[in-house]
Amino acid sequence: MVRSLSAKGVLESLLRRGEVASERVRDITLPASRIAGYPIRDAQAAAEFHETLKYAEKRGAIAVEWVRGYIGHELARVRLRDAPALARFLGRPFLPEQVDQAFEALDLGGLPQWLQGALSQLRESWLRGASRYALRVEDAGKLPLLIKAVRAIEALEPEGALDFRQFGARYLGDSKALRFLEAPLVALYRPRVGVELESREVLAQLNLVPLSQPVLLRGPLTVFDGEHRVDARVQPYVGVPGALLQSCALTAGPEYILTIENQSSFNEYTATFRDEGVVIYTAGFPVRALQAFYRRLTATSQAPVYHWGDTDVGGFRILKCLQQASAGITVHPHLMGLDEGEAFSTKQMDDLKRLLPINPAVDPLVLDMLERGTGRLEQEQIVARRVPVARPL
What angle do CA 349, 354, 358 make, to 5 degrees? Predict the structure, then answer.
């Protein structure tokens, strides 16, 4: 019977140490001198405090040690005897048993090796009373659904993107399920796709987006579905579903390839300049399907490659992603090296440093911004200008 909140706090402290302790339980004690507010001056509160400790002692959970004082006996220390018994006395699960039950209920058959390793790390963290992958032991109920989500992600076709509600409804039985799994999924996959990425950028690497949109592009390309063909020279641009990107092929050598981060700048560029360049709207961080198309496009073309985006951490992070997907072709910054812009915060400066190296065409630009401490600019502030026709040096 727990009648004293002060006593409950003492017992909870002992139990937490007992659940994660590597030393023998009998060595876990709490001296009275370390109990806040003890000795208790209020007679009723003191009686309830001592009574609660005695009940726990009768249950075999603790041992209470006393010393003779000026007036009767005084509490010397409380010693933990049986941690599982103390958990039962407090009316809550015993941590190691709770962890065992959570993992015994899981279907771990056929999981990829990396996920098995992550689950082992999660179990070890929980046994130490710590959280991992944005999950605490209290979140154990999410594990079966999380594993189900990972199985589904690993089986997704690389060409098409799904929005969050589609993914939840089709693979998890609830269109809103990803809302509760986003943090642990991001924590699991971030080491695999890019530790510097933001949460939504990690999900984009998995082809999961808030709302699935066609890829907007323009240039000497043909999009076909086996029967119908669309000339992507259409002005100002065409929208291509992610599943059709794999059938999108060059019909002529483009003058250049330009990716643009934000749609308003993409709209302005494609409406202003009519040429034989391939212009692609990345919709922020490019999804995996777009990265695969971009890799094939840059590998089969001899055209110079550019990217135009914000001159902030996110903009250069996108450029670095495109560089990694560019089949080894250098991605040159377009309108991203102006001697203007707002100051970077200390955190933004640190984040920029962590992005380096990107490529030889971008690194000097970023280093100059870091030296100046300024240069942060949204690309919408800049009037669109055509990329150089000649191949950059």
Answer: 110
Q: How far apart are alpha carbons 46 and 24 in whole angstroms?
A: 30
From the first residue on, what is the mean pLDDT of each consecutive set of 10 residues in the chain (393 residues)? Answer: 84 88 68 85 88 92 83 81 92 91 89 94 93 94 95 84 90 92 95 86 89 89 86 92 86 95 96 95 90 93 95 95 93 92 94 95 96 94 88 46
Contact between 247 and 225 (Cβ < 8 Å): yes
Q: To which residue do tokens 């599982």 refer?
A: 84
Rounded CA separation 78/66 (Å): 9
How far apart CA 170 and CA 146 sit, in angstroms, is: 14
CA distance 54 to 74: 13
- What's the per-residue H, E or C state across the chain? CCCCHHHHHHHHHHHHHHHHCCCCHHHCEEEHHHCCCCCCCCHHHHHHHHHHHHHHHHCCCEEEEEEECCCCEEEEEEEECCHHHHHHHHCCCCHHHHHHHHHHCCCCCCCCHHHHHHHHHHHHHHHCCCCECCECHHHHHHHHHHHHHHHHHHHCCCCCCEEHHHHHHHHHCCCCHHHHHHHHHHHHHHHHHCCCCCHHHHHHHCCEECCCCCEEEECCEEEECCCCEEECCCCCCEEECHHHHHHCEECCCCCCEEEECCHHHHHHHHHHCCCCCEEEECCCCCCHHHHHHHHHHHHHCCCCEEEECCCCHHHHHHHHHHHHCCCCCCEEECCCCCCCCEECCHHHHHHHHHHCCCCCCCHHHHHHHHHHCEEECCHHHCCCCCCCCCCCC
Phi, psi of 102 (to 5 degrees): -65, -40
Considering the entire predicted model, what is its pTM? 0.71
Spatial separation of the C-alpha atoms in residues 317 and 110, rounded to whole Å: 34
Here the tokens at position 82 are: 């049986």
The CA distance from 185 to 253, in Å, is 40
CA distance 113 to 343: 44
Token representation of residue 175: 């269109």
Dihedral-angle region of residue 129 (phi above 0 means left; psi in -120 to 50 means alpha; beta otherwise): left
